[in-house]
Amino acid sequence: MCELPEMQKLERGNDLVEIVKDAIFxxxxxxxxxxxxxLSQDSLAEKLGVSRQPIGQALRILLEHGIVCPLDKKSLxxxxxEPENLMKLIDIRCELDCFAAGLAAMRAQAGAxxxxxxxxxxALERLQDKYSCAETxxxxxxxxxxxxxxxxxxxxxxxxxxxxxxxxxxxxxxxRMMYIMSSNRRPLIWAEHDRILDAIKQGxxxxxxxxxxxxxxxxxxxxxxxxxxxxxxxxxx
Length: 237
Known about the structure:
Elements: H1 16-29, H2 41-48, H3 52-64, E1 68-70, E2 76-78, H4 83-109, H5 115-132, H6 140-157, H7 161-167, H8 171-181, H9 186-201, H10 205-228
Antiparallel strand pairs: 1-2
């Protein structure tokens, strides 16, 4: 059984179940928990420094999202990544994110941003500065989380909250996909983000949509290359 050496005891917050769910999901992303391995509530509770109750509730949430699945009648395990499903998801994400970028640019062109939008823009610019000014390499896991946050903020800047809500049921699968396809594109991602953000701020609707579409197509190609390197198509992150 995996010993989960890097999982650390959690600080208790207002929503312990959500914190536990995020910690287990991070362990799945980083390969500390793998498909086929029995997810022991006792072991997870010990490693995370919590009781069995929030572990059980967190696992039920991950089960509802399709991130874990039954191993036998009483146990759960991590769901293997299915390449075909990832490619379907990236197609949907491409259309939604192109739409979001176009709406954001349209709002910028019309001068329709309010104080909340300017705060979102500032958050996007801080992310960009983080990668343009970094003196030391940023940890891969943190860079993936920042990449996910960049696109979430663009969706927020669109002014259409339904774009993110449509993504919401699939976000955990989307995050697994981002983790895989970012592995060989780290030097390129933030330069592409910079061009996307510039197009939005300038109100260049078609440029913003085109840049997002190319950005996601390049990511899809990286995902396909990574998948093709797997000796077994059911191998999972």
